[in-house]
UniProtKB/TrEMBL annotation:
InterPro entries per record: E_motif, PPR_At4g14850-like_plant, PPR_rpt, TPR-like_helical_dom_sf
Protein name (Swiss-Prot/TrEMBL): Pentatricopeptide repeat-containing protein
Entry's Gene Ontology BP terms: RNA modification
Taxonomic source organism: Acorus calamus (Sweet flag)
Keywords assigned: Repeat
The PPR repeat ranges on this chain: 95-129, 227-261
GO molecular function: RNA binding
Length: 441
C-alpha cells in the first residue's frame, strides 16, 4: 500500500500508512523504507527523513544498497549535502545512481568544483550522470564547459537524453552559439524527440537569444501545449530584439488565453512598454503585480525616465519597500542625464545615502549620468574619487560564434593572443563608421 501511494504521488498518505503500520506492531523492511524515503524526498521533509534514518539504523537496514541510495537522495533533496556525503563515503556498494545523486547534490549547492571532481572520478558513467554535470555547468554559468561535456558525452558513446539536451541548449543560448544550437535542434528532429514544454521552451530561448526570432516563433507555434515559461521566453526574445509591439501583443494574447504571467513575464512586458513609451499601459501592468520585486520597480523607473517623468520616477525610487539596486539607480540617473535633470539625480543619491542605502556602484552610475549630460568636469572628478577609493567598473563582455567556435572579448583585456589584430580591426571599423556618418551629415 505504501508503494502504491508513493507511485501515485501521494507521499503524505504513504507516511500516514507507515505510522499506522507501527501502531499495529508491524515493522517495515528494506523495501518499505526505500519507498518511505522517496515519500520524504517528494515532501522535502528533512525532519521526517531524519526520524526514518534513525529507525533504519535501529532495525539494521542502513547498509542495504537501495536504502543507502534513498537516504543520499533524501539529504540531497533537502539541501543537506554534507550529510549525504558522509553516507556516500561510508557506503561499500556505490553504483552509478549513488555517484550521480552526489553530483546532483553538489550542483544544487553551487559547489561545481566538488561536482566536477566527483564526476571525473566516477568509475562508470551513464546518460543520467553525463546530463547531471552538463546541466550543472549550465546552471552555474560554465556554459563553455557545458558544451564541451556535451560533446565528450557523445564521444564516449552515450546518446544525449532530454535533460542533457536542455542543458546544452541553455549553454548555446547564453553563448550565442547558433550553429551548435541548430545542430542540437536537428538531432532532436532526426531522432523524433517530442518537443515537450521544457525542450520546446529551451529551443525558443536559444533561437531568441541568438537573434533568430522567426525560428523561435515557429517553435512556439508548433508546440502542442505551452506553459508560462514558453510564453515568457518568446515575449522576452521579441522585446529584446526590437519587436516590442509584437511582444506586448503576445503578452495580451497570453492573458486572453488564461495563462497567468510570472515575475519574469511582467519584467518583459514592462520593458516592452518602456521601449515603446507606453506609460499608461506600463502603469496598468505594474499595478497588476501582486508583490512587485526590485526588477519590476527598475522597469517602472526606466519607463517613467524614458518618458521624461523624472519626478515621478524619483518618487518611485524613494518609496520602494526594498533597497534599490544598480539597475534601478542606473535607470533613474541615466534619465536624469539625458533630460538635463542632474540636480534631481544628485539629490536622490544624497537622500539614499542618508538612509544608508548608498550602493557600491553609485559612483559609476553618477559618472555615467554626468557623461550623458556632457558635464565632463564632474565626470573627471567622480573618476578621480573612484581611483582614490579603488572603485572599479565591471568591464564589458561580449562573445561571438565563428566557424563553430565561441570567441570572447572583455573590455580592456590585454591578454588575448590576437590583441594586435583585434585592435587594428577595431580602429578600421571606427574609421569606416565615422566616414559613414560624415556622409550622412
Amino acid at each position: 500500500m505504501i508503494q502504491s501511494f508513493v507511485d501515485d504521488s501521494r507521499p503524505v498518505e504513504a507516511l500516514h500508512c507507515y505510522h499506522h503500520m507501527l501502531s499495529v506492531g508491524r515493522l517495515p523492511n528494506n523495501y518499505t523504507f526505500s519507498f518511505l524515503l522517496r515519500a520524504c524526498s517528494a515532501l522535502r521533509a528533512s525532519s521526517d527523513g531524519q526520524k526514518l534514518h534513525t529507525h533504519i539504523i535501529r532495525l539494521g537496514w542502513d547498509s542495504h544498497h537501495f536504502v543507502q541510495n534513498g537516504l543520499i537522495h533524501l539529504y540531497v533533496t533537502c539541501d543537506r549535502v554534507h550529510s549525504a556525503r558522509k553516507l556516500f563515503d561510508a557506503s561499500l556498494s556505490r553504483d552509478v545512481i549513488t555517484w550521480t545523486a552526489m553530483v546532483n547534490g553538489y550542483v544544487k549547492s553551487g559547489d561545481i568544483e566538488a561536482a566536477r571532481a566527483l564526476f571525473d572520478a566516477m568509475p562508470e558513467k551513464n546518460q543520467v550522470s553525463w546530463s547531471a554535470i552538463i546541466n550543472g555547468c549550465a546552471k552555474l554559468g560554465l556554459f563553455e564547459e557545458a558544451l564541451h561535456r556535451f560533446i565528450a558525452m557523445q564521444l564516449s558513446g552515450f546518446r544525449p537524453n532530454h535533460a542533457g539536451l536542455v542543458g546544452a541548449l541553455t549553454a548555446c543560448a547564453s553563448l550565442g552559439a547558433l550553429d551548435q544550437g541548430r545542430w542540437i535542434h536537428a538531432y532532436i528532429d532526426r531522432n523524433a524527440i517530442v518537443h515537450d514544454r521544457v525542450l520546446g521552451t529551451s529551443l525558443i530561448d536559444m533561437y531568441a537569444k541568438c537573434g533568430c526570432i522567426d525560428a523561435a516563433v515557429q517553435i512556439f507555434d508548433a508546440m502542442p501545449a505551452r506553459d508560462v515559461f514558453a510564453w515568457t521566453a518568446l515575449i522576452s526574445g521579441l522585446s529584446n530584439h526590437g519587436r516590442a509591439s509584437d511582444a506586448l501583443e503576445l503578452y495580451r494574447r497570453m492573458r486572453r488565453e488564461g495563462v497567468a504571467p510570472n515575475g519574469v513575464t511582467f519584467v518583459c512586458a514592462l520593458s516592452a512598454c518602456a521601449r515603446m513609451g507606453l506609460v499608461d499601459e506600463g502603469r496598468r501592468i505594474f499595478d497588476g503585480i501582486a508583490a512587485p520585486g526590485v526588477q519590476h520597480y527598475g522597469c517602472l523607473v526606466d519607463l517613467l525616465g524614458r518618458a521624461g517623468l523624472i519626478e515621478e520616477a524619483r518618487e518611485v525610487v524613494l518609496s520602494m519597500p526594498m533597497e534599490p539596486d544598480s539597475y534601478v539607480l542606473g535607470a533613474l540617473l541615466n534619465a536624469c542625464g539625458v533630460h538635463g535633470e542632474v540636480d534631481v539625480g544628485e539629490e536622490t543619491v544624497r537622500r539614499l545615502a542618508e538612509r544608508r542605502l548608498d550602493h557600491d556602484g553609485v559612483r559609476v552610475l553618477m559618472s555615467n549620468m554626468y557623461a550623458s549630460a556632457e558635464r565632463w568636469d564632474e565626470v573627471a572628478k567622480v573618476r578621480e574619487e573612484m581611483e582614490a577609493e579603488r572603485v572599479k567598473k565591471v568591464p564589458g563582455y561580449s562573445s561571438i560564434e565563428m566557424d563553430g567556435f565561441v570567441c570572447e572579448f572583455v573590455a580592456g583585456d590585454r591578454s588575448h593572443p590576437l590583441r594586435e589584430e583585434i585592435m587594428s580591426m577595431s580602429v578600421l571599423v571606427d574609421k569606416q563608421m565615422r566616414l559613414f556618418y560624415d556622409d550622412i551629415i
